[in-house]
Amino acid sequence: MSDFLSVFNQYINEPVVLVWLILSLLIVTYTDVKTLKIPNKVNGFIAIVNIIIFVLIPLIQGDWQSSLTSMGSALIGFVVLLIPSVVTGFNMAGDIKFIGAFGFALTPISMFLFLGVSLVTNIFTNGSLIIMKKKTYDDVIPFAPFFLISFLMLIGISWVIL
Questions:
Q1: Rounded to whole angstroms, how far apart are CA atoms 35 and 54?
Q2: Phi-psi region of 28 (alpha: psi -120 to 50; beta: other; left: phi over 0)
Q3: SS3 content of the chain, % helix, strand, coil (to 5)
Q4: Which of 100, 52, 48, 43 lies closest to 72, judged by CA?
Q5: Does the reported pTM lie above 0.70?
Q6: Which of 38, 79, 84, 125 would bridge with 94, disulfide CB 3.0–4.6 Å?
Q7: In this predicted structure, what is the pLDDT of residue 4?
């Protein structure tokens, strides 16, 4: 389990990066809740900052492996959300682009954990709201808040465990 959480534990020791990641999740959550969209400008800005932090800086420092891992994680997150969107026809382009942009901060293993926790919390919350008749099956519920919840949960768990 520590391999899955190691990247989240790393951010506890890098407060500036942790604040940036949480701030980007908060911005995306706010815009998604408010408009049910994550604008391309927001995703583009997050992608540029994350590429600088997680791809270019390690590359300049000679750490090719971290740069490649970062790019792989972004690609994995993008594809993992793109496939169900294409199959179901459900429009979640902003979420897909955001995961691609945010994915630079994760490793492939932590990306799967991050998306898994996001999905489980989303299903649990939506199921609960439907059971309580607060929402219907056809209601659109923004996905970005579950990215924030997932990240905070994984940071908290890694802080306690590691």
A1: 29
A2: alpha
A3: 80, 0, 20
A4: 100
A5: yes
A6: 38
A7: 67
- Cα–Cα distance between 134 and 17 in angstroms, integer? 37
User: Which amino acid appears at position 61 of this protein?
Assistant: Q
* Structural domain containing residue 150: 2-161
Mean pLDDT (10-residue bins), the chain, 162 residues: 74 93 97 95 98 96 95 96 85 92 95 95 88 78 94 92 75
Residue-level pLDDT at 3: 66
Which pLDDT score is estimated for 127? 84
Q: Which helix (H) or strand (E) holds 26?
A: helix 15-35
Within 36-162, residue ranges assigned H as helices are 40-51, 57-60, 64-88, 93-102, 108-131, 144-161
* Collapsed DSSP state (helix, strand, coil) of residue 138: coil
Domain count for the chain: 1
The amino acid sitting at 36 is L
Q: What angle do CA 139, 35, 115 make, to 5 degrees?
A: 70
The pLDDT of residue 126: 83
- The token pair at 135 is 């929402």
Of residues 136, 66, 140, the one with CA closest to residue 105: 66
